[in-house]
């Protein structure tokens, strides 16, 4: 599909010398944003999350010893629908080709505490090596207060996310599930 082709092109572009031209890079990133799965709302446990932006970046933290080929960043809004305060900014895990990516801390990543029935905007980044094709990438959303409940799996190729309810129905219907 068009989204996948644009995103794959964007990944290849981010590694090219042409990407150093800020005008060219800005134009491509804006075109890519039109096809991303942003502004979708996902629920898990007692949090509601709206992804507002996500992208691969050339930005690196000069103070970290790890040097990854790719850094993926997700911006999102967290609403705490629970009765108790919760931390926000560690709500996602990124998987690339089934392997969990490392948390990567850019200087402007932001985590915070969110009171009951309040909202906060946060930014979380991940680092990984190898090629970065969005059809091979998934975000997993999990409210840490709902430990043991399967995460919401959000494929970055544009296909539908898998919710804990979907996974429970699969188990009841005898469909194989990693959470069974």
The CA-CA distance between the termini, in Å, is 32 Å
How many strands in all? Answer: 11
Low-confidence stretches: 170-180
**Fraction of residues in helices?**
10-25%
Quaternary state reads single chain
Tell me the radius of gyration.
17 Å
For the biggest β-sheet, the strand order reads 1-2-3-9-7
Number of helices: 3
If you average the pLDDT, what whole number results?
80
Percent strand equals: 25-35%
User: What coarse outline follows from CA principal-axis ratios?
Assistant: globular
The ordered H/E elements are HHEEEEEEEEEEEH
For the largest beta-sheet, the strand count, sense and barrel status come to: 5 strands, antiparallel
| Helix/strand structural class | alpha+beta
Structure description:
The protein has 180 residues and is an alpha+beta fold. Helix content is 19%, strand content 34%. The chain has a five-stranded antiparallel beta sheet with strand order 1-2-3-9-7. Strand 5 (92-96) and strand 6 form a beta hairpin. Helix 1 (2-14) runs antiparallel to helix 2. The protein is globular, with a radius of gyration of 17 Å.
